[in-house]
Design brief:
The protein is mainly alpha-helical. 81% of the residues lie in helices and 0% in strands. It has one domain: Orthogonal Bundle (ABC transporter involved in vitamin B12 uptake, BtuC). Helix 1 packs antiparallel against helix 11 (218-242). The model is unreliable at 165-169 (pLDDT under 50).
């Protein structure tokens, strides 16, 4: 019982991440822009790195604002991806953003004696030490974003789950594209500083992909993705605690087994 009391804040934060990230991950899979979340997460890390170089606390409010500004700028740029023909070209652009953002973070943090340690923290996170105040903030923002996407679910659905031919005849407005990527920017900014880039990407893609191997409808995939993600988070947190392993890397490793579990479930069915 004592172990779970220690792990409870991290588990609640993981559940909030899984709730929002799985939904966004299903959209990303449908669009075929798999690495957009990783690119945005690294852009958020770049914003935090810049704040750190300027003498700000990497885990403070100012650093969060820097990260949000950076990801919001990237979200504005990514909102125009639909107007670029060819999914391969879009993925190349996203990959370039990730590589450049990573390189700039390394260059910036190399100017500080503690910069490399901070870079390691941005990749791995430290979800075990998340505070309840941070969880309340994330829960409130997640609820607001969930309400937005629920009220305008048809609009957001049409953004991702339409065919290329439909896109060409009825192109969605730039504002809705920007709102979609801005949702990404908000969610990722709140998560990266605590959970780290690796765990953010894992929760965004792996539960959604695993659920897609089992179910066909969006609703079923969403529910199954939530369940699988939560099971992976619980198992990963528990293993990291009992075996004294790095929390973020351990959870990512365990969540990485979910596609194999999904394949097994599919085979049994």
């Amino acid at each position: 019982m004592e172990a779970w009391m220690i792990l409870l804040p991290a588990l609640v934060f993981s559940a909030l991440m899984i709730f929002s990230h799985t939904y966004l991950g299903l959209h990303v899979l449908a669009r075929g822009i798999i690495f957009v979340d990783l690119a945005l997460a690294q852009v958020a890390a770049l914003g935090i790195s810049l704040a750190f170089l300027l003498g700000e606390d990497a885990h403070g409010l100012t650093a969060q604002l820097y990260a949000f500004g950076a990801t919001l700028t990237a979200a504005f740029a990514f909102a125009g991806l639909r107007r670029i023909p060819g999914k391969t070209t879009r993925e190349v652009i996203i990959g370039c953003v990730y590589v450049v953002a990573t390189a700039l973070s390394i260059v910036i943090l190399s100017r500080s004696s503690q910069g490399m340690e901070e870079l390691k923290s941005l990749f791995n996170g430290n979800i075990l030490w998340v505070r309840w105040q941070e969880i309340v903030v994330v829960a409130g923002v997640t609820a607001l974003l969930a309400l937005l996407h629920l009220l305008y679910r048809k609009r957001f659905y049409e953004l991702s789950f339409t065919t290329e031919s439909t896109e060409s005849t009825r192109r969605p407005g730039f504002l809705w594209e920007f709102l979609f990527f801005a949702s990404f920017a908000i969610v990722i900014t709140l998560a990266v500083n605590i959970a780290g880039v690796l765990l953010v990407f894992a929760f965004l893609i792996i539960p959604a992909f695993s659920a897609s191997l089992i179910a066909g409808s969006l609703r079923a995939r969403l529910l199954i993705g939530w369940l699988l993600g939560l099971l992976g988070a619980i198992a990963g947190l528990w293993l990291s605690f009992v075996a004294d392993l790095p929390v973020g890397a351990t959870v990512v490793s365990v969540v990485g087994l979910l596609p194999f579990l999904a394949v097994a479930i599919r085979a049994v069915r």
